[in-house]
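Good morning,

Both structures are done.
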Amino acid sequence: MLQVRDLIKLIRKFTDPILRTVQLTIGRAVLKAVTDSSGIQVVKLSLLQGEVKEMERFQNYGFTSVPILGSCEGVAVFVGGNREHGICIGLDDRLYRLKNLGEGQAAMYDSTGTNILMKNDGSMEIKNAAGTCKITINTNGQAVIESNNVEIGKTALEKALKGETFQAWFNAHTHTGNVGAPTSPPNQQSIATHLSSEVKLGGGIV
């Protein structure tokens, strides 16, 4: 007759391999290296004590990053519990992550303090902690800003001049002379080089 002790041993004989496979399927990791030259980014992760694995890192479509080595933590998944077949499904950084966001807000951030915050009132804020943020729009096409109000600078209270309109008015304007007759147009004319060749203002923003 099969004893209870023997029955337990028999059950463990069949379940222990399954348990080990499950335990090896997913794990926490610390980022050690990044290779960003391939189609899918490759990362080297420190996992169990003394275990370092190189694997593909899957990121969300439309967004990519190279995290900071050493401080960035992640999650590794091993298909079928095979420790030689791992993929990285998430990386986060508790040192640099933008904190204390409101419900529904989202943000992009990096290690310099620069961040893009999308607020839940529909507004967006681009910020650099050092105050030296440079924003570059690089396109061979056309850059368009459509807004009812465009302010440049914290104290932007006055409207901008429309270059061609002002130039035409300036070159044609006259003054009243000493005897009451209008003078001729100004001797110093505004010329094409006085106007920006790359920035233009539309009629709706001034």
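Second structure follows.
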Amino acid sequence: MYKNILQLKAILEAIDKIEQYTGDFKNAQDLYHDIKSFDATMMQFIVIGESINRLDDEFKNKNSSIPWQKIKDFRNIIAHDYFGIDADEIWDIVNSKILPLKQEVEKLIKFYEDDF
């Protein structure tokens, strides 16, 4: 279980970085044209996907409220089709999906650390 908690904390850290890297932008195009911030954000999505890949399957099945496979698939798109990434889609994910994911991951960490 400890390994899973470490991976959840890595996901949380990556989410915090995404929030930091994107927080000052007003729209998708501004983020996209700031190459360093955009690339740094994409790297953190890859980190999230890699961390999900390292979670035990049993753990993911037990905690299926998070769309683990969908997030991991998104990581694969970023890693393998970087030039096909839609800035508006990234912006939508950052602004509508990251906070709920963060909240779910925080709940899991608290639940499993209390159990530990």
